[in-house]
Amino acid sequence: MEKFVVFGKYCEDVLIKREPFRKQHLNRLRNLKDQNILVTLGPTKCTKYLFGIFNATDEKQLSTFIEEDIYWKKGIWTNYDIYPWVQAF
To answer: pLDDT tens across 61-83, in order?
Structure first.
């Protein structure tokens, strides 16, 4: 598996709009973490952007993981970019 960095953006009023979907989202992330797919994921302090590190076979697989998330489906995440990453340490 390769490592990938994900940068994305949240919708306006994210703290309000995410609330109905937050539990489902977090449960899914726990599952991805248990499968060693998710390394870390979270918002920046200003809650405008998201940052994550994932393990995946390729960018297409990672796009699928992202787009299956309720936050993507409900427009909480509005866009994302994926970058292959080489972990030096």
So the answer is: 999 999 999 999 999 999 999 99
